[in-house]
Amino acid sequence: MKIKLFYLLFLIVISCGSSNHVKSKPIFRYVDLDTYGKFELGENIQKINSLTEIKNDHLFLKENVFGGAESIEIISNSNGNIAEIIFYYGDKTSLKTEIEEYQKTLGIPEISNNKATWNDGKTSFELYEIENEVYSKMTDLIK
Q1: Residue 23 pLDDT level (bands cut at 50, 70, 90)
Q2: DSSP 52-99
Q3: Of 123, 114, 110, nearest to 30 (Cα)?
Q4: CA dist list (Å): 117 to 19, 45, 129, 136, 143
Q5: Residue 1 carries which DSSP code?
Q6: How far apart are the first and last CA of the chain?
Q7: Which of 70, 76, 127, 129 has its Cα between 20 and 30 A from that of 95?
């Protein structure tokens, strides 16, 4: 019985593999702004200039153009394309619940240091918590 249990645990560890080999299902790369349309990773930041504002030297969507998060920060690369989108949910959102919800569509994430990460080769999507406040981040991996 102990040998069977050992082999079962061994198979589970082997099947998990390392994060470099595990790919998630395709990850969404856009933010739907309802009546304002949508924007996505890799697009030029100019597309949404009228919908953004600068706060503390960071670029955010204006509060009246989105729902579902307390704020959405946009980070562009040196070419002026959208490289990262960071959603701030505050302390009223449960990291554990968010991870469970995203697992339904994206599959099992890599979990490390209170952060869940999905990676489909084009996009990285992270859910994490800092001082009991929940964030998510989409990062463009296409170079």
Answers
A1: low
A2: EEEETTEEEE-GGG--SSSEEEEEE-TTSBEEEEEEEEETTS-HHHHH
A3: 123
A4: 9, 25, 12, 10, 19
A5: -
A6: 51
A7: 76
Residues 129, 137 contacting (CB under 8 angstroms): no
Q: Where are the domains of the chain?
A: 19-140
Give the pLDDT score at 67: 87
Give this prediction's pTM. 0.81
User: Which of 4, 29, 21 is CA-nearest to residue 142?
Assistant: 29
| Length reported for the chain | 143
> pLDDT band for position 24 (50/70/90)?
confident
Bridge partner list, 136: 87, 127
**CA 32, CA 42: separation in Å to the nearest integer?**
15
The pLDDT value recorded for residue 8 is: 28
At 131, give phi and psi (nearest 5°).
50, 50
Q: Assess contact for 20 and 121: CB atoms under 8 A.
A: no
Determine what percent of the chain falls in helix, strand and coil, rounding each to the nearest 5.
30, 40, 35
